[in-house]
Amino acid sequence: MKKLLCLSVLFSAGVSAGGPVCSPNASTSFQDVENQAFTITYDALGQNSLYRQCTNMSNQVLIDVLDTGSCGALQNPIDGLGLSPVDNFLYGMMPTDALGIGAHIQFDVFPFPSPGEPGDMMKADPVDVYRIGNDGGYERIGQIDTAPEDAVLPAQTEQVIPTVHTAASFDATGNLYLLGYKTNYSSSADVMAGTGEVLYQTPRIMIGQVGAAALTAAAGGVIPAVWSEADTTTDAVCAAVMNQFRDRTNTFSECVVADYIALGDQNMALESCLASTAVLDYGIQDFAVSPTNGNYYALDSTSFDTTDVLIEVDSTTMQASCTNFADAGSSTGVLTSLMFSEQNKLVAVFADENTGRWIDVNTGVITTLTDNIDAFPFGDGSSLPFALPRRGINALAGINDLIFRNGFEDEFIFANGFEGTPQPPLCPSF
Q1: Residue 109: what pLDDT?
Q2: What is the value of pTM for the model shown?
Q3: For the domain bounded by 8-401, which CATH number is listed?
């Protein structure tokens, strides 16, 4: 999401033997997944590296560098990572707009500034969806369109609903969920004064659901999603979070408008103001579906300096509830990924930190994990799948009774189809 890190040393270490299959099939799915998480990290050059580790952050192993060209060059980073419990493939989302903000402005299409209300100048963009195999193979399988705008809006009001490509999660039956922000805005300008304004109202959280069958059958077209709106207005803490995001967005908008009027280059204005306002640090960066109650959980670690906010959305009623928890000095930083472990522990990874933290969703207590991982300012992680290949076997016989439990007595000879990156050791319960 920010900053940069050089990953050049990984090119020689991560390429699977035999090369990736770029149309993932059953032979390249992830079979040993119990208590493991998967992460994609990427640097400023757009180099995507796929890792696996236990959910307590131990045993981090590089699977492959994805954008080495063997499966086609990636135009933007893959993010919004999740592991499907239906087919055991990873799925990720890629922004289709050049700057990764989920939308683009059209100041040049709607001449700005112009008298009165220039009109609908902000357009949301779809996200591309990628399927990823255990050998590092990847392919684009289609796109998810943005949530539809409201049919009726107040006079002189426009609407935009960008999709947050960093935020996605699976539920127990293989449905994929993603996040959008529904935001109304208005624009005005005074040509004689040489001024203009694009003013945003408080956004609303949108959750999109892609059915498991539609996702696994996707083959390049539009993948249908059903969108629902969360109610963040009746909880005071939730309302404060959304209002803060509105204020940050308007600070960014003021910067873009001023730069564009001064310089006449909308792309330069966007890039400059993304850097100067750090607007992408704010809001919900990722969320996860609980394996026990099916609700959606997110963590806002940046809106307020002294508190973090745990956000829970009831998956049945779509009612949001938010709780403040102390964060002296904003020590938790900017979230890059959020995921649940098999034991329903919510694990968070933050930018530039070399470990994860787990969050007690009942008390809000954040505990630093002891195992270290590589610190990546960019990246995203997947929650654990909920249907585990090993569970059926373990239910019939204890792990100690399984001869050749990992190939041949802890040797990974047959763990990955005679080739490819060996599976890491079994992960501890967490």
Answers
A1: 79
A2: 0.85
A3: 2.120.10
How big is the chain, counted in residues? 430
Give yes or no for a contact between 148 and 169, defined as CB atoms under 8 angstroms apart: no
- Asked whether 48 and 93 are in contact (CB, 8 A), the reply is no
C-alpha 137/C-alpha 63 separation (Å) is: 10
Burial category of 6 from C-beta neighbours within 10 Å (exposed 0-12, middle 13-18, buried 19 and up)? exposed
Q: Which residues are bridge partners to 210 per DSSP?
A: 176
Question: Angle CA(72)–CA(75)–CA(78) in degrees, nearest 5?
Answer: 90
Cβ atoms 169, 185 nearer than 8 A: no
28 token code pair: 């390249």
Condensed to tens digits (0 to 9), the pLDDT of residues 174-201 reads: 999 999 999 999 998 887 787 889 999 9
Q: Is the separation of the CB atoms in 170 and 289 below 8 Å?
A: yes
Q: What angle do CA 227, 232, 234 make, to 5 degrees?
A: 135
Q: Is the pLDDT of residue 10 over 70?
A: no
Phi and psi at residue 9, to the nearest 5°: -70, -15
Q: What SS3 class is residue 127?
A: strand
In the numeric block, which tokens belong to residue 95?
């922004």
Tell which residue, 306, 254, 255, 309, has the closest CA to residue 283.
Answer: 309
C-alpha to C-alpha distance for 1 and 137, rounded to whole angstroms: 23
Q: Where are the beta strands (DSSP E) in 239-391?
A: 287-289, 296-300, 307-313, 320-326, 335-340, 346-350, 355-359, 366-372, 380-381
Return the SS3 of 260. helix
Strand partners, 408: 411
Are 20 and 69 spatial neighbours (Cβ–Cβ below 8 Å)?
no
User: Domain residues of the chain, as ranges?
Assistant: 8-401
Helix (H) or strand (E) holding 245: helix 236-263
Per-residue burial over 9-26, b if 16 or more Cβ lie within 10 Å, else e, is: ebeeebbbeebbbeebee
The pLDDT of residue 100: 84
177 sits in which H/E element: strand 176-190
Written as six digits, the tokens of 366 are 């954040």
Asked if 113 contacts 190 with a C-beta cutoff of 8 angstroms, the reply is: yes
Taking only the tens place, the pLDDT of each residue in 231-284 is: 999 999 999 999 999 999 999 999 999 999 999 899 899 999 999 998 988 888
Q: Tokens 């357009």 appear where?
A: 123
Nearest to 99 by CA among 272, 337, 221, 261: 272
